[in-house]
Amino acid sequence: MRERQHWYESIIDAIPLPLSVTDSDMRWTFVNKVVEDLLGKKRPDIMGMECHNWGANICRTENCGVACLRRGQTRSMFHQWSRDFTVDTHYLLNLTGQRIGHVEVVQDVSEQKALGDLMAKITSYSKLLVNNAATLSNASQHISSTGDQVSVETSSISAGMEELAQTITALASAAEEVSANLQGVSAALEQTSRSIESIAENARHGTDLAARANQLAEQASGIMGELGSAAAETGTVTEIIKGVASQTNLLALNATIEAARASEMGKGFAVVAGEVKNLANQSGRSADDIVTRISGMQEISSKAVNAIGDVNGVIATVAEAMAHINEAISQQRAATGEVAGNLQQASQGSSESAENITQASSAIQEMSASIHKINDAARGNAEALRSVNGSVKEMSRIAGELDAIIRTHTKQA
């Protein structure tokens, strides 16, 4: 019997793992050789001791192997002395199947755990590497596509710059033409201003001459009125002379008759002679009066002639002033036509300038849009490059950690 016990103990002692058996009160009833070596005590000295004398950090805690078994968990783990251990705990049964104790097998799984951790890290880092590789690929594609877009937009900007240069050249030409037309307008306006001043001066002179002519015409009208009065008075005198002549004729007839009767009535001649003398005196006075009035009429007529001459002179001067005015008006008309032509050309040049400015504005807007697109692409590239840089750094860090883990594991192995 003892031989068989020794035989079983030898078998258990050959197990290279710590193995202990406790009763229901968690007191040791058996330990193998490995446990003796770990505790530094012989098996007889250990029997009956409570198992917490292991001194493990899970003793007397809910992570104790027996406590875990009683909760239905046959395997538990703990970390101590910089090592990792697993505890496999099972019930010890008698022949009737009754639970009479516990069997605990402790195993140092530090290498296995380290290897598992290493594999987990390698797997995790592999996923990170795959993700970072995908990020790099996406960033590369994005940079490539934005590069193509930037190339297209750059070509668009180049074409826009050429169009803008042509538009600016046309705009400068139109501006020079407008400037020349405006200078022509300025010169024509100066000439028009001088013409207007000349017209105003001649108009003022013409007004003065017209006033003078009106005054002279009034004087001539007055003189002609006096001449008309003198002519009327002369007509009166002429009527008197006609009456005198008629009476003289009558007297002559009477004288002829009296001459025929002279033999009978000689005295009648004396009476006729007296009447003829009176008529003759009256005719003389009328003749003197006529001479006086004719002289007055001659003087008035001379005045009228002089006044009419003055009026003619004034009219000639007015005609000359009107000729100057007409000439100035013609010059003004020509200058106005030149101003209108220059203004029309300037307006046309301004329209062309406005059209060129519109084209330049459109070209600038298109270039601005292209620049915005390039800016957006540059920002996208910058973000992609930052992502690439971050991915590269992360991959470098992962590679370093993997190298360190592998080196550590190699040294431990």
From TrEMBL:
Keyword rRNA-binding found: no
Q: Name one Pfam family in it.
A: PAS_4
The annotated regions of Low complexity compositional bias extend over 344-355
What name is this protein filed under? Chemotaxis protein
By sequence similarity, the record places it as follows: Belongs to the methyl-accepting chemotaxis (MCP) protein family.
Keywords on record: Transducer
- Coiled-coil stretches: none
Q: Region Disordered: start and end of each range?
A: 342-361
Please name the GO terms that the record assigns under molecular function.
transmembrane signaling receptor activity
Stretches assigned to the Methyl-accepting transducer domain: 139-368
Look up keyword Protein transport and say if it applies: no
Per the UniProt entry, what is one GO biological process? chemotaxis
Which positions fall inside the PAS domain?
4-48
Q: Cross-referenced InterPro entries, in alphabetical order?
A: Chemotax_Me-accpt_rcpt, MCPsignal_dom, PAS, PAS-like_dom_sf, PAS_4
Record's Gene Ontology CC terms? Answer: membrane
